[in-house]
Amino acid sequence: MSKTYTLEELRKMKGETDIERIKNTTEKEIMEQSISDPDTPYLTDDELKEFTTPKERKKRDEHKKDRQ
Questions:
Q1: Residues 11-51: pLDDT tens digits?
Q2: For position 38, what pLDDT does the model report?
Q3: Distance between terminal CA atoms of the chain?
Q4: CA of 14: how far to CAs of 4, 9, 10, 18, 35, in Å?
Q5: Is residue 2 part of a domain?
Q6: Residue 54 to residues 21, 41, 43, 51: CA-CA distances in angstroms?
Q7: What angle do CA 20, 22, 27 make, to 5 degrees?
Q8: For position 25, what pLDDT does the model report?
Q9: In whole angstroms, what separates CA 2 from the centre of its chain?
Q10: Domain range spanning residue 45?
Q11: Would residue 51 count as lying in a domain?
Q12: Mean pLDDT, to the nearest integer, of 48-55?
């Protein structure tokens, strides 16, 4: 069952993120965690090259629109 919170209630809540753990996690550990996570697909370099930023997509879409 989910609960609804007001903005004021959310602002009063203390976050549970372990900032020190995040700051101290190495790139190697991040990669190991990613690879061991069954919900994270392992992408090849070619697949990663297909990713674009929102700014790049907007520019591409505007270019397509102008060509129509």
A1: 999 999 999 999 999 999 999 999 999 998 888 999 999 99
A2: 93
A3: 49
A4: 17, 10, 8, 12, 31
A5: no
A6: 30, 21, 20, 10
A7: 130
A8: 98
A9: 24
A10: 7-66
A11: yes
A12: 93
The pLDDT of 49-54, averaged and rounded, is 93
* Within a domain: 1: no
Flag whether 52 is in a domain.
yes
CA distance 10 to 15: 10
**How many domains does one find in the chain?**
1
Q: Which residues contact 35 (CB under 8 A, 6 or more apart)?
A: 42
Note the pLDDT of residue 13.
95
Instruction: Enter the tokens of residue 20.
Output: 């020190």
Instruction: Please identify which residue in the block is written with the tokens 């090849």.
Output: 44
* pLDDT for the residue numbered 42: 83
